[in-house]
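S1.2 Input.
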Amino acid sequence: MRTIVEVTFPDTLVMYVAGDPAWRIPEQSKEAFAALEGALDSLKGRRFYGVIVGGGYRACSSLVETDDVSALPHPTWTIPGGRYARTRIPDWEEHTERIGAAFEALYALPNVDPARPAIEFYRSRRDLFVMVPIE
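S1.3 Output.
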């Protein structure tokens, strides 16, 4: 059984690349992350998020201390914070098929907030947190 916990996610400033809305979400994810990471000098110290916004996908990276906000390779945006229901997918790179099922389980909760986006937080190469906003 999947463990679901409630967490408070802070408003988070990120730079992002949007996927092509003509594609399905998994394909948008791959395309957007390739473009996001390809323009960064280093991935070190960054946190990565996949955000589902209105049926589209944004690959996002946190900013680091050395970033010059006026010279970023991508636009910035703030992921809205608040209460989220969260579940963990261990070894996610080997189990990408579990991501959709995790979102389905979270969206089945009775208190989902449709005004905010769903989030994938890539905590590490091993751990992925799937989060859906709740009221």
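S1.4 Remarks. The chain has two helices and eight strands.
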